[in-house]
Amino acid sequence: MVAAGIVALLKQPQRKASAALAIGSLGISLLLSLAAFAHVVSDWANGIATRETVNFTWIQTGSSTVDLGWVLDPLSAIMLVMVCFVGLLIFIYSTGYMEHDENFTRFFCFLALFAGAMLGVVIANSLLLLFMCWELVGLTSYLLIGFWYHKPSAAAAAKKAFLTTRVGDIFFFLGIVWLFNATGTLLFYNHGSGSMEGLALANLLTQHAALGLTAAGAIALLIFAGAAGKSGQLPLHVWLPDAMEGPTPVSALIHAATMVAAGVYLIARVYPLMSAGALVTSSGEIAGTTTPLIVVTWIGAATAVFAALIAVAQDDIKRILAYSTVSQLGYMMAGLGLGGVAVGMFHLITHAFFKALLFMGAGSVIHGCHEEQDIRKMGGLRPQMRITFYTYAAGMLALCGFPLFFSGFWSKDAILEAAHKSDFIKGPYYLLVFGALLTAFYMIRQVSYVFFGNWRGHGHAHESPRVMTAPLAILAFFAVVLGAIGTPAWPWFHAFLDGHAAAIDLHAFVEADFLKLLLTSGLIVFLGLGLGWALYGNKSPRPEEPDALEKAVPWIWTALRDRLYVDEFYGVTFIAFYAWWARVADWFDRRVWGGVVAWIAWIFGLWAHLNRRIDTHWVDGSFDKACEELSTGGGLLARAQNGRVQIYLRVLAVAVVAFAAILIWSSRP
Amino acid sequence: MTGFASPLEAYLLVAALLFAIGLAGALTRRNAILVLIGIELMLNAANLNFIAFWRYGPHPEALTGMMFAIFSIAVAAAEAAVGLGLVISIYRHAKTTDLDQMNRMKG
Amino acid sequence: MSVIFFLVAALTVAGGLAAVLFKNTVHCALAVTVAFAGLALLFLSLDAQFAGFAQVLVYIGAVAILVVFAILLTRGSETPQSGVFSKSWFTGLVIAAGIFAVLGWAVMQSAHALPQQAAAPAVTVHDIGVALVGRYVLPLEIVALLLTAATIGAVIVALHEKERTQ
After folding, report:
1. Complex prediction ipTM
2. Is the pTM of this model over 0.80?
């Protein structure tokens, strides 16, 4: 954040300084977060559950206080490392991508500010501090989406993003206030008296709100509303695709890896609240579930499918990835709801890596095709942009969940496993499987459009500079390798978050249930890939030709292309209502208040007029008359001043005589 | 000599007479210098008063009256000098010492 | 009261009257000198020798001469056409008479309370000198200052005029 402040003061030409400051400070943050992570890991290896907090009092009103604080536990440690690492790679990437842009320094200023705010969200121990950093993240996202503000579409998209997340934030804030009212503290962990700790939770469970919910449930749902806005869950997802108006590094950083993940992180943070009341068996598995978690799961699953469907019919390379993000966020939410913190967070971490990779790869492609973003105008880039192709392929396969080798497979599988295992909610499993199919389908569609076939664009495509491709390579590596920490054979991640030991157990691979699941998901992926290749394969349709799928099912295609009309629906209802309301208020303001003001002004004018009359005739007249009298009197008196000394002397003498006479007369005995 | 309760009374009356004469001169003569002469007469009358009271009053050895008179003489001399200097300078301006014609301070 | 007193008093009063009534200004100045002399004699009769001689020295020796000089410098010896008394001389006379009346009345009123003839005070010049530099040293110094200022002032008043008219 300090870097952001300094960069804000730098002028435009000082590009190197701004970039260096931003990257440098994030690098330092990375080192610090790695150190923290190492500390937590070592503690964990020794069997100690780490939860270190630093709390301080911020406001004190009478006997109640509002405290803020920071927490370091496995969850925040992991997020810290992820945010810093991916962020750093994207910062480096941006120096190449934004090279030709004249607002280089402003970009890095906003980037640094965003990084600071995001880290603040991650390490916050107080819901209030988290909310403050949350809002700051939203603000910087607004600034970055609308970075090219002279483009009206960009400005509109930024505004839309801000307003939509605002809707979610209102509910979030209501939840915060309710929580503070009910428990008296907003700290998560405070040595037993925090809001996520036993005492507070038990308290909340006994209070009842409407519709059969407990206070805990109601607050949890309100907080989820905030997360839904920020993470683009179903009703509030409309801003995310439009947010692609921002520069690609922005999309990579904010809308793939970090900001949208903030919503998921929030749910993970308040997970004790969300799962309060659920029955927990001795092994830590969730045996029951609560209303908020059910809601989270269903919305997550629905979002996953909904967004995947729309992604199938989009033509803008970034939009496809945007809807993919929405879909994957749905997966994460579902994972949280079904399997707990570890399952959802694992997918979040892997997704961060490969989605950032995909976005940056897309950025590289756009850069190489001279700012072209329509995939129908690309094609045959494989031979010309080799590094980009290989890294992009790695990311794409991870996203699809290609079996065994790619991290996405393991994380998605964990979610599917949890969905399958859940005895309480069956529906989501099928939705999620369908979603996986669609994911594979649209990704292969995109890849074949972009990299295979013949070149359909203008000019020549060229590979991107090293500063852009190096981060791609690094991320690709992680996209593959990260899977290893989450396999059932070695559930390190799960164990780390939950605080118990992890054992390498290869037998887990051959568990009957697990194998069945593995085969099912593998099959789905291959099915999706196959379908896609069959339809799009090595063919190279010209831009004017309709899409292959379109030829097959035209009316579905149109509906999907038009994003299932959600935006239009909003436009007709909420926005129209709001515009109408604004007009009413304006009329009221002008007519009624304006009338009152005019009337008052008229009265004042009358009063002023009256005053003037009085002043001129009475006051002035009387005053003039008095002055005249004075003048005359003065004239009369002045006759005594005849300038002749002897006369003065005489008067003096007379006065003395009179005085003396009086004195003598009065002192007679 | 006859009927006076005290010699002081005689002196006081003489002083009063002189004072009145001096005042009359100051009030009625036209020449500025004669006004000054009248003023000198008045001062002298006052001095006479002082000396008379000193002589016949209590504690003449305290010399209060005598001192007063001496200082009065000194001051009167200074005042006469300045006053006459003024009259001369006015004469240079107005070419006359007639007081009736000097009404420049008329308001 | 002795005859001498009456004679001297009459002389003084006559001198005063003459000073006020004569038409010729120089005669007035001479008359007032006579009045001064009479007053000096009166002081002497009151056993105020120092005051008497100071009166002679200062008044007759300085002030009267000064007045004569002033008269000469302002051509007062010429008789003005319109008379020596102002137009409203009667008012002035009345006022002076009034003053005399009040004063005389005051004296007569308190005549019985006036102190009687006491023994002549044995005051020597030495005593006066000691008093001047002892008890009355402050007035002495102030009067010295005053005289200096008056001298300077008179010179300045006279000088400036000279420069301007030349």
Report:
1. 0.88
2. no
